[in-house]
Amino acid sequence: MKHIFLKRVLPVAFLSAGLTGMQACKPKGTQSAVTGDAASKAYVAPGKYDEFYNFVSGGFSGQMSVYGLPSGRLLRVIPVFSVDPEKGWGYSEETKPMLNTSNGLIPWDDLHHIALSVTNGVHDGRWAFGNANNTPRIARIDLTTFRAAEIIEIPNSAGNHSSPFITENSEYVVAGTRFSVPIGDNQDVPINSYKDNFKGTVSFIGLNKDSGDMHIAFQILTPGINFDLARAGKGKSAGWVFFSCYNSEKANTLLEVNASQKDKDFIMAVNWKKAEEYVKAGKGVKKAVRYAHNKYNEQTHTAISTIEKEVLTLDPKDCPDMVYFMPCPKSPHGCDTDPSGEYIVGSGKLAAIIPVFSFSKIQQAITGKNYDGTFDGIPVLKYEAVLHGEVQKTGLGPLHTEFDDKGNAYTSFFVSSEIIKWNIKDLKVLDRVPTYYSIGHLSVPGGPTAKPYGKYVIAYNKITKDRYLPTGPELTQSAQLYDISGDKMKLILDFPTIGEPHYAEALPAALIAKNSRKIFKIEENKNPYATLGDKNARVERVGKDIHVYMTSIRSHFTPDNIEGVKLGETVYFHVTNLEQDWDVPHGFAVKGANNAELLIMPGETQTLKWVPEKAGIFPMYCTDFCSALHQEMQGYIRVSAPGANVPLSFSTGSTEPAAAQPSKDGSTVKN
Amino acid sequence: MKLKMITAATIIYGALLFTASCGNEGVKTETTDPAATSPQELANNQPETHGIEIKEGDITITSPLQKDLVSAGKSIYELKCQACHKLNEEKLVGPGWKDVTKKRKPVWIMNMITNTEAMLTSDPEAQKLLEQCLVRMPNQNISKDEARQILEFMRENDGEK
Ligand SMILES: [Cu+2]
């Protein structure tokens, strides 16, 4: 009894020691770590461009942010999983379908990781992917427009943390479930029947080579454990994906204790080429599910949401040689493959060593059936048989590893707040620098690819206490930029970030800047509510709906005076921006609208829905300073009582005095 | 009173220059290694129908009117120009188009359409119009051929056959 008690308490003791230690570990020395030429290394002169784009997850903000490196300038916040009134994302009728799910429209999520598309294992600058952690989804961002082009929900998943990670030629984006959940028709089961009823899944989302369009190709059913992070192989390991997992104890309560019982959890190795063969051979089973699949069309400027009802699942017991477990100390978090694809670096967040696995040894162990038993029927490879070696004398709480172009690895340490540089071949520690502080992920430009640019490492920190001017109880999240071009890492910049930056990728700006879209061609605008030219501007009544077909150009709307709307009617403002010049959006807002604004790019049409709640005159105006006469870019809409005798009419530039109202109601009169 | 108006116009003009400058003369470069070329060069090197200068010898004006050019020009007018230009002499955002082909040379009109920024910066007549209208004519992404079509439509609007 006592023995069991000890066994249970030990991990907690270890963890709390670590956490108490966190205060002590709070690095005092980071200020002095800044060297004299730091400012000039991070300085990008006004008017000059940065060398790298840095795509950073926005954590609980639900968005993705884009920074320039080395300056740390915030270039853009891309709305993805959370509504964004600044841009009308999730408020305009065209974008609402992007946030649709099988649970209806969800205005918020938690974006944890970034993956950039790759060709031959190298960034190609086409798409960025982000995951919704809470209501499992994956988004694809088009890097010509910097907007979310597609969002797909993941069925049979909960806490979509282990995603999105991408294979060597962007064949698949993988998404592992963090929480195992009951799968199938009966999900109303006792929670403590976890071991019997809860299952995990990892999903393989196929990408169309040309368009990037996503579809769930297949899911692999797994034991009921928790998946944390993943990395695809590359080079010789290209056909594999590695997932770190914890809670091999299959606990369903107080996981901080109960999921820390075993000395080793697992990294799950999946042979996805093999999985493809099994799919072709018809080993997949179709399961009834419901998930939303949302696509934004850049011709119609409109998103369409479709509910899909089926997913193909593969069960490892029907598919031998597809899935293996490798023991990994202790509650593994990161698992990262080096640029060559030979080494897989695990990070046990409660371990004080870093285990490095060898892909060649994994293959030998599989061939030689060098197993250490099975876990739920899946072979467990012998730890010693697959291990390249362990990095000793590290810090506390290793989380993530990225790589440079010289055979070195950089690992973040949450508890001891530092980055440690070590050599992949001989596993010797070469350098360490403090971070400020409690670093989570880190990023090297090109770091997860076959071709890292070993110029910088960026730390994404969880806590910034005492680092910036105070702003009440909540402080900004932060990133820190280190120069790694020499033997020693050098801190050169701190910069604040939005939300909680979980993971980020950086790539040469030249890969993206040249393709960045300037305008939407008005001739190609296929929005069904577009107003192609002023002569088509009009107001129409369809039943209880009023459709305003409106154009905007510096510096007026057409029409800008509208009368005859009745209380009880719903007004749709379909605003088409006729401009064809880069960076001349027009905004649109109406007084009292229970909605946001529209922000309409050149050549685009967007729709604001407005349900007036009282009679009167409601001003509307352009919200984006567009020209010297921007302040004049305004208009009025008149709302009358339901029985009023005001005909529907509209005008622009009419200076005639009020006339007697014609009595014919419901007709359209153009002044 | 008059002085006050001119001052206001000058201030707005200054503001216009400030808010709506777009110098994007790019250099064509080919590259395979993204790190080798500066992103600044690449970003400036995007195709854009903008800043095309039309010279005297570039265009031929014939009579009678070319009907296909007129109708193509009319569609462009309705899509991209009508919001600011009326077909009579009334000013809307920009000047009315009535008799513009009698007041200006074809090359001037086409440059105003395709090479707007340069005209507003250096052509005295264009600058006079800007002082009256106070809104810089936006680049509407119109090619040289399309500008020629618009010109033909303007000629018809001015009564040519
Ligand atoms: Cu405006």
Describe this entry's structure for a reader.
The complex is a heterodimer of chains A (671) and B (161). Chain A has 671 residues and is mainly beta. Chain A contains nine helices and 47 strands. Chain B is built from eight helices and no strands. In chain B, helix 3 crosses helix 8, helix 5 (106-114) crosses helix 6 and helix 6 (116-122) crosses helix 7 (124-133). The model of chain B is unreliable at 1-32 (pLDDT under 50). The interface between A and B is large, with 40 and 38 residues. Residues 586, 622, 624, 626, 630, 633 of chain A line the site of copper (II) ion.
What's the overall average pLDDT of chain A, rounded? 92
Helices of chain A, by number, come to 9
User: Using DSSP, what is the number of strands of chain B?
Assistant: 0
What bound compounds does this protein have?
copper (II) ion
The main β sheet of chain A shows up as:
11 strands, mixed
Strand content of chain A: 35-45%
The description of the largest β-sheet of chain B is: none
Given helix and strand content, the structural type of chain B is mainly alpha
The largest contact between protein chains, plus residue counts on each side, is: A-B, 40 and 38 residues
Task: Show unreliable segments of chain A.
Answer: 1-25, 660-671
How much helicity do the residues of chain A have?
under 10%
